[in-house]
Each structure stands twice: as structure tokens, then as C-alpha cells.
Specification:
This protein has about 290 residues and is α/β, with parallel strands linked by helices. About 45% of the residues lie in helices and about 15% in strands. The chain has helices at about 5-20, 25-35, 50-55, 90-95, 120-135, 145-150, 175-185, 185-200, 210, 235-245, 265-275, 280-285; strands at about 55-60, 60-65, 75, 100-105, 135-140, 160-165, 220-225, 250-255. The chain has an 8-stranded mixed β-sheet, with helices on both faces. Helix 1 (about 5-20) packs antiparallel against helix 2 (about 25-35). It is globular. It starts with a helix and ends in a 5-residue tail after the last helix.
Amino acid sequence: MGSRAVMTRAVGAGLRMIEALSPQAAGRLAFELWRRPLRRGKVRPSEQAVHAAARVEVVDGVVTYAWGDGTRPVLLVHGWRSRASRFAAFVERLVELGYSPVSYDAPGHGDTPGRAGTILGHERIIQRLGSRYGAFEGVIAHSMGVPFVLYALRDDKLSAERIVVISGFAEFSYLADAFCRALGLGARTNQALRRQVERKLFAGDPEIWTKFSVVPGRSELLSIHNDEDDVVDPAQAPMLLASYGPKARFRQTNGLGHRRIMVDPDVVTEAVAFVTGSDVAERLDLGA
């Protein structure tokens, strides 16, 4: 068993003891964990060259990265406990094709200090990057980066012709449900956690679970999900497609899980082909 799994089990056991006495107290503690990724992703050896080649800037406290000559920008948005360097294989391919990838380490992730940000904070970051680098020709997002991107792109101030979402989910409430399920917490603690999120992050708005879920989109979208994803339930994929509408297409992969999907050569090829609108994308049976 890996260290991450051991830590999750230990934290879950402690919270369940508190839950037996007070679900409200367990919900408050769960919220504090919600705001703090237990581990920061480090740059892997396979990512070092791409990471070192980036032009690095700090924008309002957020560490941002850019590659290429600045033309035809493509935004890359990572997920929970991750960082921009996880897109190394995508960056290499995009630069080879003449595109300019842009990414950032989310607050509390990678090299960016602080606590994890909210979906509204990510919207502001993404809009600033759009102002800095120009209209995005495409976007690729992984895991928790998916709702951040799809919400940011609802605004007429920001658009992208093509979007690729990898291991994404449709319902914003899935965040609370998956978090509690991973820690073995019950329904009453789940509700207490949700109330904490509403009050402390969104001014008490109880509608956030609907407001931040996927809605019909205008850009062409490709959803890639793995049948053995142990982090985001594969059942979220058809829900995302149905919520986004007729401009969404789907590609299922097999045996890659939640993380290896990001380094699989076929996934990188399909994602880049779709987001760049290349001939390869036209030859793929993306509706299968």
C-alpha cells in the first residue's frame, strides 16, 4: 500500500471516530482537509526538461508557465494534488505543431503557495491568462481542472474553439461525495461539509452545487475517460456528455486509471489532434 493510501486511511479513521460523536464537528474538520492538499505534486524526472524550458512568471501570486513563441495559445489546467508539469507530453507535442501551451500551478499546488483556491478563483486566473496571452485556440483539462475550465468558458469574455476534458466529472457535488467516500464518511458529515463549503467559500449560497455543474456548451468538446479510473467514477463521463450537449464527443480508454492516462501516447495524440483540429482528429472515430 502506498504512502498516500496509508495517509488517507489514517485520516479517515480519525474523522470517523469524531463523526460518531458529532457529524458537525467531523464536517468542520473535513472542510479544513478539503482546503489543503495533503501532498504537493513534485516535478517528475520525465517532466524536468519541459518544466525547465518554460517561461515562468508569477501573476497575482500564481506561478504560470508558457512555452512556444506565443502564437496559437492552448491552455492546460491540472487537477487536485497535481501541477502544470504533468502536461509535459502534451506540451512537447503542441510546441512541435507550432502552438504555444500556457499553464499554471493552482494555489496550494506545485510551486504556488497558499491554500487551494475556489472555482471562482480559478475563473479569475484563467481570465487573466486569456488577457495576457490572447484568445485560446484550445484547452486541455484533467480531473478537477475540468469544472474550473468549463465554468470559466461560460463567460463571453473567454472562449476556446475546442476543449479536451480528461477524467472529468459533471456534477460539482461529486467533489463532496467523492471526498467523503474516500474517507469513509457518512451522509450527515457529507451534508455538514457541504454547509461549510457554502458558508466559508461562497457566502452561504446553497445553489453552488447546481450553479457550478456542467451546462450546455458552445465549443467542440472531447471527453476522454478510463474504464478503471479509481479517482473519478467512469459513470461521470456519460453524465458530462449529456449535460454538455450535442457538441460533446467521447473516447473511452482501457486499463490506464486516473494518472497513467496523462502519459499514454495514444491519449496525448488524440487530445492534441482534437484540440488543434488536425487531420488526425478527422480520421478518429470519436463517437465510438
